[in-house]
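queue> holo job accepted (calcium ion)
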Amino acid sequence: MATPSHRRSLRSRRLLVVSAAVVAAGAGAATLVMNANAGGVDLYRQTLAAKDGWASSGAGTTGGATADIAHVFTVSTRAQLVKALGSVSDTAPRIIKVKGTIDANTDDSGRKLTCADYSAGTGYSLSAYLKAYDPASYGTSKLPSGTQEKARAAAQSKQAKNIVFKVPANTSVVGVPGTKAGITGGMLQVQNVDNVIVRNLAFSATEDCFPQWDPTDGDDGNWNSDYDSLTLRGATHVWADHNSFTDAAHFDRANPKYYGREYQIHDGALDITKGSDLVTVERNQFTNHDKTMLIGSSDTDSTGKLRVSIHHNVWKGIVQRAPLARIGQVHIYDNVYDTTTLNGYAPLYSINSRARAQVVAEDNYWKVPSGAKLARLLSGDGTGSVAGRGNLVNGTATDLVAAYNAASSKKLRTTVNWTPTLTAGLTSAKNLPAELATTTGAAVLTAS
Ligand code: CA
Ligand code: CA
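queue> job finished
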């Protein structure tokens, strides 16, 4: 079985051989091998290994590995991060080392910003908004419009300008080990670009100060928020590895209710939408979150794309969407799902396959409290597939699809139109709970 450090050194060795060959052309083969064995490529220039999920297909995913010295940045503040990211039109390979925790809700001088700072001057106030769109007077048939909605949108756009970080193509954003590296309160946005690596970052507290009321969403209306901690929109070749995602310190159970509905300030943790494709999500930890991972934002998001591999992640204290998969060929293997309620996050389901999604779920391990209904680990709309084998529930081989289908009218299909081949590290689920406890999330990688 390949441990993470073993796979890292393999990856490093391959890269070293290439660079050594370029630099020291003419050196003998013995020298190259010696150099290759002498040390590893540093964390920041590592690339996705061959066959490691969908992001390894085609040209693979190298991020900013070939960045020249002028494009290697170390950042510790929001302003430094913005500067290092530059413009999305500048596709020169770049490496951004995140040292410590960057608070997205700070101004250019590092001063803490509150929701009131964003709404100042817009005329928005929550109490005025609640008065304006109260279903008792405004009704439930149309979206809010008028003065207070305009003011809300203006305040929201001020927050967005501050907390959304746009990542250009050919970029690696990597946390510096030992520094609690991460982004709090922000959204890393990978939109319509190719070849991006995001590693070793702790994402927390991505919150929308200005949720929008939508009385037409569902039977009773919903409060909707705008930001995911990491969002992929039309992005290709993305490797998200060894990151942590959590709502902490504000958990959903502390959300108030307005118009009888939860005032939800969170959106996704890691959403993969709008024709994104060729993505590998590996060795992350997802905890304390409701709508965790959306693959495809509507039933018509895109055809022939949304191909995602999700492996060796830990999902704990997750309500739903782990992931919600639409349309694409999605491989979910060697994950650990702990469906014990945590900090008020009570699981609805783990994996949802809809809009003809072609999901292969194999060798995953579910930890389930005694008495829990196994039919509730999956979900679907009657058109999605879930194939696969080797899934364990509390250590026992279990056919989750059969359990779900026996209890549901919208049955999951059990055949898919593809066979996964990019399956690095695929192994039996038996030892995953112990193995993933110490090899996932931010703060386990070392510098080389
Ligand atoms: Ca949303
Ligand atoms: Ca989202």
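queue> Residues 228, 231, 267-268, 271, 294 surround calcium ion (ligand 2) (CB under 6 Å).
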